[in-house]
Amino acid sequence: MKMKIFNDGKTKERLPLIDRLEGVDHSEEEINHRCISFSRLLKKLGNFWNGVQNVSWKAWEMGRTDPRKIIFAMKMGLALSLVSLLIFWKESADIGQYSIWAILTVIVMFEFSIGATFIKGFNRGLGTLCAGILAFGFAELSLLAGPCEEVVIVISIFITGFFTSYLKLYPTMAPFEYGFRVFIMTYCILMVAGNRTREYNEAIITRLVLIAFGGGVCFIVNICFYPIWAGEDLHSLVVENFKGVAASLEGCVNGYVKCVQYERDSQEILTLQQASDDPLSSGYRSAVESKSQEANLLGFAIWEPPHGRYRMFNYPWKNYVKLSAALRHCAFMVMALHGCILSEIQAPAERRRLFQNELQRVGTEGAKVLRELANKVEKMEKLSSGDILKEVHEAAEQLQKKIDQRSYLLVNSESWFIGRLKKVEDPENLEEMKDNENEKLGYKSLSETVLEIRSCSAWAPSGDVFRKQSLWPSRLSLIADAAVREDEIRTYESASALSLATFVSLLIEFVARLQNVVDSFQELSEKAEFRKSR
Questions:
Q1: How buried is residue 476: exposed, middle or buried, by Cβ count under 10 Å (0-12/13-18/19+)?
Q2: Which of 103, 337, 426, 473 qualifies as a FRET site for 378, CA 20 to 30 Å off?
Q3: For residue 293, what are the CA distances in angstroms to 242, 288, 490?
Q4: What is the tens place of the pLDDT at every residue in 134-159?
């Protein structure tokens, strides 16, 4: 028992010391925790500051590359400032009280281009006017209803909301979707406000006047101060697409004949990242992917009044889109040519150089035609009396003749049968031929025998320009000490030769499609009344 008491006493005596030690450990842990929290806070503040700098830099670059965006923001601020002066109108309490309608009109109507502002203004005005007329009729009906006034208002809102929401889903009503939203919003607000103030007519007229004032300020500021026209943007976009496709065409042809090496990653190819980063693809991709942008600009441009170089009513903006569609048809061929450069199976460098001059001439003349059309569109001039496609057609014909002369390079000519069959004079000879029809015929092309093309390495081009590419087929049969089976070599040689034929056929198809581009341009130049070339 004493031992127990002693132990209990000893334990009690050591308790203060243990508490002090535990207190010291606890304070050290707290200090460490505070240091870690402070370091995390500093790291978060640093990341936040870096994010602010990054956003500021991007905003600065956006304004520097396109100053029109800064001008648009300034015009927006000016329009809002002018409309906000109605707040201080002291002569009429209603004007100051309902001035928010004019401010909201500026906010929803003011767009980047003049055409977009006109579309929003038309939808806003038409929706507000129709809502005002309908609200005026139902207001008079609700007053005549007497005790059932609230019932009439609720039923009218239901009917209006139902038909408005149903009609805006109709496909042809898609351009007026904003007008339907304005209509239902304005109608509901007018009916509720009129019911509270019991002055339906005054509420409707005041709001219509303020909305008209806000719309007028939008038009005046947006048109009179550095106007931004969607038609001009559409015109510039078509010109840039022509120049981009021309640059991509020249780059693809020159890169193919010079056997430019590409380091490819399968993951990047699957995600199309490499194609977007490649400078060769930037030109044709802008033309291929600009369809939606052209459609938006067209929708805005047709609403714009005559201006600048486009001083005629009903300007043929649709022909710009038609011309761009014909160019896009050619851009698909340039995309396919670029795909040949990135393909797994490649023609040997020796065979490419054999057609180098003809291929480069077609690429140069094709790019020349596109740049000439871009220059004519930019200056709004008609084509000269000569044939703009004469040179590129002659180049394509020369390439086709060269292909016809050297067609044995594009197929496995060892399987050609150039011997003469025995004349069948007797039915017994026919039976002999049937018996021997499964025999292997090993005739060799005379032209290939002379040139001995097999001496050229079909799967290891000189300079190792495509060393990053794996051989196809990927699994070659090995016999003895790394000897590759002959039939598989022939299979690869045939496939690699056909890749050259594919590139040539795509290039000739591109030349054939140029005629559609020229026809579309001539149609545009006639309808838009381009001036004659000097």
A1: middle
A2: 337
A3: 16, 11, 48
A4: 888 888 888 787 788 788 888 888 99
HSE of 527, CA atoms in CB hemisphere, 13 A: 16
Token pair in block for residue 289: 């992917």
How many alpha carbons fall within 13 Å on the CB side of residue 3?
A: 0
The two structure tokens encoding residue 484: 């590759």
For residues 78 and 222, what is the distance between their CA atoms, to the nearest angstrom?
A: 10
* pTM of this structure: 0.73
pLDDT given for residue 260 in this prediction = 66
**Half-sphere CA count of 388, side-chain side, radius 13 A:** 24
* Non-local CB neighbours of 123 within 8 Å, separated by 6+ positions: 176, 178, 179, 182
Q: 198-206 long-range contacts, Cβ below 8 Å, gap at least 24?
A: 200/135, 200/136, 200/139, 200/140, 200/143, 201/136, 201/139, 202/94, 204/132, 204/135, 204/136, 204/139, 206/94, 206/95, 206/98
Chain centroid to Cα 380, Å, comes to: 26
For residue 501, the SS3 value is: helix
Crossing angle of the two packed helices 230-257 and 356-379, in degrees rounded to 10: 170
Look up residue 172 and give its DSSP letter.
G
Fill in the DSSP letter of residue 532: P
Q: What gap in Å lies between CA 289 and CA 461, rounded to an integer?
A: 35
Q: If you average pLDDT over every residue of the chain, what do you get?
A: 76
Cβ atoms 523, 436 nearer than 8 A: no
Give the confidence band of 367 by pLDDT, cuts at 50, 70, 90.
very high
Whole-number Å distance between alpha carbons of 56 and 50: 10
**pLDDT category of residue 245 using cuts at 50, 70 and 90:** very high
On the 0-12 / 13-18 / 19+ scale of CB atoms within 10 A, 370 is buried
Q: What is the 3-state secondary structure (H, E, C) of 293-322?
A: HHHHHHHHHCCCCCECCECCCCCCHHHHHH
The stretch 216-230 carries a mean pLDDT of: 90
Q: Quick one: which of 122, 125, 126, 77 has its CA closest to 103?
A: 77
Contact by Cβ (8 Å): 323, 524: yes
